[in-house]
């Protein structure tokens, strides 16, 4: 069982979302694993939602749950308590119009924007994404964090979560329990010192 402040993030492809019984598959998995839905974050690539709102000529079209079975499934997943994250936000500059129409909990800022932010590049774009996310009451994750200057800049911008090699490299599944115990499940986890940019494991 995961404590409520720990969640597992899983990438979601357009093909998986198109499956007729996808919502049922997620519910069955949560039940079998006895996992609280709020501990599961499904990450949707920016391009997946772009497909739902762009017409054949690339123009932005009105979007609704009735017109888009994929968005309807995302709404059902959010309704059962699963977290939904828009991944790599900013890579396409996200000309989606009204973001409040999408059933999201979280935005993840693309690593390309974060990588040079502390050098003054992309700073205003990152600031704008954070302002947009917070205005819509969404949590914001910055990915690709590799050094302390990036952490300091994100702290000053009140970013909610951080992801990247600064917090640790990818590890095999058998090492996950030890990693969680050492970094996140102790009474005084060392990573908590970086708050408000809370690290996450992917």
What are the defining features of this structure?
16% strand, single chain, alpha/beta, seven-stranded parallel beta sheet, 202 residues
Question: How would you sum up this structure, described in words?
Answer:
By secondary structure, this protein is α/β, with parallel strands linked by helices. Helices cover 35% and strands 16% of the residues. The chain has eight helices and seven strands, in the order βααβααββααβαβαβ. The protein has helices at 14-18, 22-33, 46-53, 69-79, 111-115, 123-135, 148-156, 176-183; strands at residues 8-12, 40-45, 83-89, 106-109, 139-143, 161-163, 198-199. A seven-stranded parallel β-sheet has the order 1-2-3-4-5-6-7. The two termini are 17 Å apart.
List the helices and strands and how they pair.
Elements: E1 8-12, H1 14-18, H2 22-33, E2 40-45, H3 46-53, H4 69-79, E3 83-89, E4 106-109, H5 111-115, H6 123-135, E5 139-143, H7 148-156, E6 161-163, H8 176-183, E7 198-199
């Amino acid at each position: 069982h995961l404590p409520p402040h720990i969640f597992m993030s899983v990438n979601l492809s357009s093909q998986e979302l198109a499956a007729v019984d996808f919502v049922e598959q997620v519910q069955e998995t949560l039940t079998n694993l006895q996992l609280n839905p709020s501990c599961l974050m499904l990450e949707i690539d920016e391009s997946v939602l772009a497909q739902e709102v762009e017409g054949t000529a690339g123009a932005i079209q009105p979007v609704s749950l009735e017109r888009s079975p994929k968005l309807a499934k995302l709404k059902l997943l959010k309704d059962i308590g699963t977290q939904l994250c828009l991944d790599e936000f900013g890579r396409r500059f996200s000309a989606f119009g009204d973001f409040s129409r999408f059933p999201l909990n979280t935005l993840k800022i693309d690593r390309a924007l974060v990588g040079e932010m502390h050098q003054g590049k992309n700073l205003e774009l990152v600031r704008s994404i954070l302002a947009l996310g917070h205005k819509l009451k969404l949590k914001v994750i910055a990915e690709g964090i590799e050094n302390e200057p990036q952490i300091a800049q994100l702290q000053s911008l009140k970013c909610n979560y951080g992801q990247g090699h600064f917090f640790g490299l990818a590890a095999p599944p058998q090492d996950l329990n030890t990693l969680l115990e050492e970094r996140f499940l102790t009474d005084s986890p060392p990573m908590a010192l970086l708050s408000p940019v809370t690290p996450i494991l992917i």
